[in-house]
Design goal:
The complex is a heterodimer of chains A (about 325) and B (about 55). Chain A has about 325 residues and is α/β, with parallel strands linked by helices. Chain A is about 35% helix and about 15% strand. Chain B is globular and about 40 Å long. Classes of the chains: A alpha/beta (about 325), B mainly alpha (about 55).
Chain lengths: ~325, ~55
């Protein structure tokens, strides 16, 4: 893994030195061992800040939108799931292909930092991470820790579809075979089986906790509207009151707004400070899109027409 | 899609309905409205996800 980080730094350095890009967006070591932070590097000397490992959960593709009006090109480090975001941003004409250099890293899965941090002695320094296939060994100055992937990976990684970036200009590392530890729609199917009142009770508990911080919206790589309906005051589509009724309206609207474009990067779910399982809403939509329109996860291929943005004579017509 | 999502978050099946009706389909329109009215009456007022009951 450290070797890959070294290769990544060399590639980034080369891009900056040759002036192919003005900025490299990548992962850097955060304040805690198990938390990495996005880093923005604009000089070849800065590349030493780049890192790579099982703590690089962030989807950096969204940052490309912030730099789309800059004169120069931007390079971004992506995992398989983030690469779907890049495809989606290109299809939405949010970014220009010639102004983006995609550095793809095949990803063996990202660990949930909370779970990992709970085990590692606070204040430890990371030495090395070894991927053993079904587990990671995290070597630190306070000893070695082993984390089984089945128990410590983010849920989205347990059901990963694209460990290898679906779009990439520079690929670092070998291709990784797809390995799922769980059935992709199992969680959704369990919830679907409940009676209406039970589902209602479940979601009431979730939505009632929402703070309306809009982190889920801000982190979302397909939420790129210049004026968001949830910010608008005139007309005020959804009231800003934080209560169950308005929160429900917000979450259903948010989920449906990204339907057919959501790439299932799972960032909304990860960033939620109240741990609302937002992915369960998005994955439900993915499941229905697959069943009704036979559509793959958006962003899997470039130029994929959104199932809700196109028409085909074979579409189901339940409303007729 | 939206109907499925609403049912997934706990609304009763039948609470939401979408129908495509042409301007020339008067009879179909009346039957649809009648059916919908009966369905909603049998379900009663919506008490889900409203802040005034919790």
């Amino acid at each position: 893994m450290m070797n890959l980080a070294q290769q990544l730094r060399e590639q980034a350095k080369k891009l900056l030195e040759e002036k192919k890009v003005d900025l490299v967006i990548g992962f850097g070591q955060g304040t805690e061992l198990a938390r990495n932070t996005p880093v923005f590097i604009d000089s070849p000397e800065g590349v030493s800040a780049l890192t790579w490992g099982p703590f690089c959960a962030n989807n950096l593709a969204k940052y490309l939108v912030d730099y789309k009006n800059d004169p120069g090109s931007t390079a971004v480090v992506v995992k398989g799931c983030d690469a779907r975001s890049v495809n989606r941003l290109l299809d939405d004409n949010q970014i220009l292909r010639e102004k983006v250099v995609v550095i793809g890293l095949p990803c063996p899965g990202q660990l949930e930092w909370q779970k990992v941090s709970a085990e590692i002695k606070p204040g430890s320094t990371l030495k090395e991470v070894v991927d053993n296939g079904d587990s990671y060994t995290v070597k630190t100055d306070s000893g070695d820790y082993t984390f089984n992937k089945k128990d410590y990976l983010l849920h989205r990684c347990l059901v990963c579809e694209n460990p290898n970036p679906v779009i990439s200009d520079i690929t670092i590392g070998k291709e990784i075979p797809v390995k799922n530890y769980e059935e992709r729609f199992a969680e959704v199917q369990d919830l679907e089986k409940l009676a209406a009142d039970e589902k209602n009770e479940y979601w009431n508990k979730q939505f009632a906790r929402c703070l309306r911080c809009y982190a889920c919206r801000n982190v979302c790589s397909v939420c790129t509207c210049k004026v968001c309906a949830f910010d608008q005051m005139q007309p005020m589509w959804v009231s800003k009151r934080t209560n169950l009724s308005e929160n429900t309206a917000f979450h259903i609207t948010r989920a449906f707004h990204v339907a057919g474009r959501c790439v299932d990067c799972g960032e909304c779910d990860r960033v939620c400070p109240m741990d609302i399982p937002l992915r369960k809403l998005n994955v439900k939509i993915h499941k229905d899109l697959g069943e009704l329109f036979n559509s793959p996860t958006p962003g899997t291929e470039p130029g994929l027409i959104s199932p809700l943005g196109g028409f085909s004579p074979g579409d189901p017509e339940e409303f007729m | 899609m939206f109907k499925r999502l609403l049912e997934y978050v706990g609304f009763e099946p039948g609470r939401f309905k979408a129908r495509w009706l042409s301007g020339s389909e008067g009879a179909k329109f009346t039957t649809t409205v009648k059916e919908m009215t009966e369905k909603i009456k049998s379900l009663g007022p919506n008490k889900k996800m409203r802040d005034d009951i919790i």
